[in-house]
């Protein structure tokens, strides 16, 4: 494909599109407004903790085909690790009960027949909730599809909140159903938990940048596109800090920024564009410990534990860091950071202590709290209707991002899939 490919945004959607198009025969430039690529899936050195941390936690599954294809293209497929079985340890802070969801590897869910492998207290009839979610219509919410019982309370509700980053009362059942069809419905082999062995940047960003450098692509960080120029049904220019870049007739532009930025940049050239406009936050808090905790049993094999009945949702063990994720965190927006951190540390001790060789300190260790106030679009039926496709009303302009119409919630899998979709649409000879 001749011409110059301009990719605006260096998050995973933009990097995915760039990897897909690098080496297609023309120039390729990625414009990233921030100092580093990666967006919500990157690592950085935290001076307060004195170590490198991820800006958020992302639990991937072996079913994430777009993720593993992307990692394979950049030579990083072996940088994800995880248990050799589809196991998910949990603790309920209400009664302090503990269990490990241990899925069957094949399609037949034998795990449901074993009280030691399924959610404690659940009734087999509750699995109808899964069918209802997978068959849900576009206007249904998760809460409308869940049957009462322990399967919902101890698995499906926490799973829904973390997958959608939206509460069950408003979250889209159809989106959650899509996740279930691509994971649990395919059997345990599709549900092996995976996460970076070192960090998000080391898996998803640095190998991609190295690959793009080998392919002679240009990545410009600290380069904010402040405006889009269009005429005669196509983009003709990009406004950059050092002047305007001309977009020639054979060039294409892929807009891989956040939904609010895309709406702002494209307001003058695509006045009819609709994008999600309601958002949910995520809170991640990282505790650094000395000495590093030594997890045992299921926690030692999985390196994470799900938490039910508290503020905390997932606790990840990353060497000397205990990292906690709280999804759909708009509900905690008014909570003081120190007070919230103290509550979470108390929950971490209750959740993790029984599975460690040595107990955690009573006093809270050094920590870093990261509040991403617009982490994802709110995955509601109303917001789902606002997600645009990759193609736009301009001949050479395409959209990418986890907020576009991927059929999935705002996830790494969705972001990478959106980049591939935009790149393939741009390569399509009938696009004009």
**Cα Rg:** 22 Å
Strand content: 15-25%
Distance between the termini: 14 Å
Q: What's the helical proportion of residues?
A: 25-40%
- Give the beta-strand count: 20
What is the name of the CATH topology of the largest domain?
Polyamine Oxidase, Chain A, domain 2
Biggest sheet layout:
7 strands, mixed
Which stretches are low in confidence, meaning pLDDT under 50 for 5 or more residues running? Answer: none
CATH architecture verdict of the largest domain: Alpha-Beta Complex
Number of domains: 3
The largest sheet has its strands arranged as 8-7-16-17-18-15-19
Could you name the CATH class of the largest domain? Answer: Alpha Beta
Structural class: alpha/beta
The number of distinct helices, counting runs of at least 4 residues, comes to 12
What is the averaged pLDDT score? 96
Task: Tell the overall outline.
Answer: globular
GO molecular function: oxidoreductase activity
Domain Amine oxidase: 12-425
InterPro entries: Amino_oxidase, FAD/NAD-bd_sf, SQase_HpnE, Zeta_carotene_desat/Oxidored
Pfam family, one: Amino_oxidase
Polypeptide structure, described:
The protein contains 12 helices and 20 strands. With 432 residues, it is α/β, with parallel strands linked by helices. It folds into 3 domains: 137 residues, FAD/NAD(P)-binding domain (3-Layer(bba) Sandwich); 145 residues, Polyamine Oxidase, Chain A, domain 2, CATH 3.90.660.10; 69 residues, no CATH class. The strands form 5 sheets. The chain has a 7-stranded mixed beta sheet with strand order 8-7-16-17-18-15-19, with helices on both faces. It has a 5-stranded parallel beta sheet with strand order 10-2-1-14-20, covered by helices on one side. Helix 1 links the parallel strand 1 and strand 2. It is globular. The two termini are 14 Å apart. GO terms for molecular function: oxidoreductase activity. InterPro entries: Amino_oxidase, FAD/NAD-bd_sf, SQase_HpnE, Zeta_carotene_desat/Oxidored. This is NAD(P)-binding protein.
